[in-house]
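Aim 2, interim progress. The first record below pairs a target sequence with its structure tokens.
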Amino acid sequence: MLTDKSLPANAGFPVSGLSGSGGLRWRWPLKRIPVLHAAVAALLVIIVGVPLGILLLTSVRPGTTLPFDDTPLVLSNYRDVFGRVSTYRLLGGTMLYAAASTAIGVGIAASIAFLVERTNLPLRNTIHSLMLACLALPGLIITFGWVLLLDPRIGLLNIELRKLPWVQASKGPLDIYSVWGMIMVTGLALAPTFFLMLTSLMRRMDGALEEAGQMSGASTVGVMRRVTLPLMTPGFASVMVYGALILIQAFEVPLALGVTAGFPVLSLSIYISAQSDMELPHYGLAAVFGILATIIGIGLMMLYYRVVRVASRFQVIGGKGYRPRRLTLDRAKWPALAGVGLYVALGVALPLLMLLWATLVPSNYYEHPSLNLFSSLNLQSYARLFAYPKFFDAIVNTVIVVIVTSTTTTLLATLVAWLSVRSGAVMGKFLDMTAFSSLAIPGIVSTLAIMMIFVSTPIYGTIWILIAGMLVGGLGFVTRLMVAAVTQISRELEEAAQMCGARPLRTFRSIVLPLLRPAFVNGWLWVASHHMRNFTVPLMLASTQNVVIASLLWQLWSRGNGGSSISIAAALAVLMVIALLLMSALLRGYSERLETRAVG
């Protein structure tokens, strides 16, 4: 008879029988769990560490040589970068661009989130759905629309302004190709992302605290200044730091506007150094710039963790119920609604309408909107797009890349989340932090490393290098999403599977994944939409054989110069927006049905 004293110290696991020597034989494979953990941990270390190692090796190779070339190690690249005054101007400009764009985006998002979540603003649900739909719009496409509005020569707003008698200018007077044009477009484009992050912060504010302030004699403005804003400060700070982290690695808007504006940022300098359009690529300089970007990203990541830890001191929801409090706007609700409408018009509607107009112009060349052209609008731009040689190849390649990368990334993130939640404190924290730290490596930096690894192999120039470049994108964000979902699942079903002899991966496949299906679909949707509108990887790794929609769009637009390619590029941009909105709506509806079925 087995007694408690005859069992090992960790005998909480099921016993399946006795070994030949009379000892206990454990059915639950204790020795296999460390192997699985070690394999996933090693994979994460490779994903995060190999790009950094490749960059370090490339940075000490001379000239245009590759990291694995048999050349001496040098420090000339570091001397070239840190010995230039322009490098410090570049860093200052990058910080200015990131900070100002984040401030504008967070300011707009916070205002709309407050009106939607904390006031009686009309059409709140419609505004919320509209802001979520705007998440699917690529920043580069919005930038194209703003170019058609504010280009010094052909921009519609500039053309109309030059008709005013007091404006004496042959071009302009407004110029989108400037640092302030870049900041404005970026801030408007990122506002929906910040809105999604801030709505939950606004929704969780306990109105009882504000009521207590009013009962103490404070005015509404005083309560906002002394109670509401201080309690929300850590949440705002975390959003600001995360926004700066995103914008340090921003590439699309600087590519479209920064070159003409003469205001390169760090990501753009990496791209220019690694490309061979005008001269031989200088991989060493690109690697040093990449290391700089990574150091800044790591610093912002550490600051983000610090801010999140401080935020726990400002918790306002405890065991007792809390009651959100909505402010009554009275007559101010209509001006507030007009302000939201102004953002929607400037941030989304006008740029998209300009692109739509560009697809309908009757001639082979772009013409600004006028009443005389309305009667002759046609769909010839779409016909020319469908006849373009690489169009259908780009669609097929995009579908393959998005499906493979989104599925693989979400599966890996789910596995990492499950292991990190179900593991001990040390291993679980290591897995979670390693996956999340991938956000500290800018996308253009990891893409540069992928290029260095595969540039001399048959994979280079194929869609498989695009898959390798995008595979890690979104891993950190989706891991955090899945960690929250795994935490809500009880261990009982997994323990029952273990008692029946299921191995860890079988338990993960048969028990965990079905229970996480709604969260998995949400994560897959987020990754797929971001990969579909990812321009960094396709442009860095572009070739004639791996063209996707993003690279084809940039190719058509950059060759436009006011000609027919702009109309074709606009047609492709409009179709891309429609596809993203449809995919987002369909998958979000599917996810909501899964959640409803799970609750039922």
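The second target in this work package is listed in the same format:
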Amino acid sequence: MTPYLVLARKWRPQRFEDLVGQDHVTRALTNALTSGRVPHAFLFTGIRGVGKTTVARLMAMALECQTGITATPCGACDSCTEIRAGQHPDVLEIDAASRTKVDQMREVLEMVCYKPSVARFRIYILDEIHMLTSQSFNALLKTLEEPPAHVKFLFATTESRKIPATILSRCQRYDLKRLTRDTLTAHLVRVLDSEGIPHDPPGLGAVVRAADGSVRDALSLLDQAIAHGNGAVRFASIRELLGLTDREAVASLLEHLVNGQGPEVLRGVEEFYQGGMEPGLLVRDLLGLIHAGLRRRVLAREGHAPEPDAADAPACLDALPAEHLQMLYQVLLRGREDLERTDMPYQALEMLLLRAALLKPVPDLEQLIGRLTALQPSGAAAPVETTPAPGGRGPPPGQQVVAPPTPRPVKAPVIPPAPVPPPREPPAEASRPAPEAYGSWRDFIRTMEVRSPRLARELVHKVTLEQYTPDPGGGPPAVLGLRVAHAAYGAAADMRRRVAEQLSELGLDGIRLTVTEAAAGPRPETELETRDRHQADQLRQLEEAVRDHPVVVNLARRFQGRIVAVEPLTPDGPAAAAR
């Protein structure tokens, strides 16, 4: 009896063009082989079953083919046939997972110095290289950086993030993609047609979904489905084989769930459970339908064609807010994790789906705030427009829903502005004081902010006022006594010289200026410190007013929220927004 060769081995690609769904990799390798730009080390990475080891073997055949280095190896010479059978003396295929120790890696590397016995190169194919220890990687490092001309390294891994960067930088990396459902379906149809095996689209779709982008997984499942279906691939046998749910029954259960129909949900759960359905698989299928329904809505806005899975999602999902679907998805997703830990799966499944069925639609936040602040006559009962939840939940027919009396709206808090000094930056033209305004120290600084911003910065940041004698006629002050605010700002003599020079440039030589040294202990505030203190006091008053405002208190109670920060809407204004 001839041994049966499974489909995954029988349909293993024998040429680069036979590789499914990896055109970006085969194109690059073909160009490298054609142009002669073949590096000494390759790294092929991707999920399981997409062709990493197959590409490495094809690359070895292309390098060792007796017709020459070519992108189209003949497949018939001794080198090609021996490589295909895993018996070529110069092509060593090593499972790195079983040779993780550094001593084993050194044994492999000791053979690098020997020239190939019969072929052109000595090729090392290391599968699952991420399983090597850090010591093994270190042993490989130097050889990988400067190998002999007759050595080529071909690495394959499913966990490239576990490979040290020093190894990655010495290889040419090729990422093999997960196959799309359309590509994988077309490949399976080609295989089944060539094998003469009847099949139906739902059964093939179930195999493709279970394979999750892996060609090897899809072919292995196909082998199993053919045996289970007595030579045919039918959805009925695959559903029984994989423990799948009836998509229509799941869609019906989801419709009862979003409509809040508790008894129907319980009956549906009982039917699935009695039929042998695993609770985790049922929740997984419910999550898939919610995901497909929301994707259908989002893609429809952009004019995209509906996806195949979108047809199974019930139409009632389109009537629900997207926020509600997101919340429903999160509830089921977290509940699925609890199902895996409980020893009462049936009871936990019922409670999970009932909790999802009792979810209320998420209200629109802007509309809710508008209702809270809407003007309503005091003591009057206003009818509330209610939208019954999908499935008819709402008030009984003929019964009018009356809202409780709405309190009088409370205006937003308005805090009278504290006597805040002018902003640090020069004010607008309309608010600038006249140059001759010298009646007080603050007027003097405002004038300097217009006439000499450089002098204003010195007076605001670095000095404190000790004496200011205004001129009776409204001119510049007669006496100006200052103190250096901090020793870090320099000596008093240097400060007096700088201020005197700038006053002289403005034609204010007649001011009697004195500047004293900075002293330890209490001192008057600088103008900057005064402004900062006023602003801090104003913000504190603002936070207290916002925190006690009825609208904010109501929102925090309804949403279990808290005030994170209160910020003024304008740099110097009392109005603020809470977030």
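Confidence is low (pLDDT under 50) at residues 375-415, 423-434, 573-579. This observation will shape the mutagenesis plan for the next reporting period.
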